[in-house]
Amino acid sequence: MLQTIEVEIDPSGHIHPLEPLTFIPAGRAYLTLLPAPNKGLRTSIAGDGSAAKALELLASPRFAQRPAALSDEVQQRISELRNDWGNR
After folding, report:
1. CA neighbours closer than 13 Å in the CB half-sphere of residue 77
2. How many helices (H) and strands (E) does the chain have?
3. Rounded to the nearest 5 degrees, what angle is found at the Cα of 57, between the Cα atoms of 52 and 58?
4. What is the pLDDT of residues 42-83, one digit of tens each?
5. What percent of the chain stands above pLDDT 70?
6. How far lies 25's CA from each of 4, 10, 21, 36, 42, in Å?
7. pTM over 0.85
C-alpha cells in the first residue's frame, strides 16, 4: 500500500517528518519537491490549521448527519464511472 508523509528537507539534505510517524519507513520512495512555504509557516496541525479544521468538521453534528450511501451503491457507481471512462 502506498503511503504519503509530509516532510521538510533541511539545508544539509536530511529529511524530517512534520508529524510523528507510527511506523519506521523502509523501502523505496518517490520524492516530489513542493514550493518552499512562507518562512515560519509549518503545514502541520499547529501550522495553518487545516488539519484542525478537518478534525473539527469530523466532530461536527453536520458531518454526523450527512447522508451515507450503501457500500453496494458506491461500488456500482464506481463501476459505472470506470466503464464510462473506457468508452471515451
Report:
1. 6
2. 3, 2
3. 95
4. 544 444 567 888 888 888 998 888 888 899 999 999 999 988
5. 81
6. 11, 18, 8, 24, 22
7. no
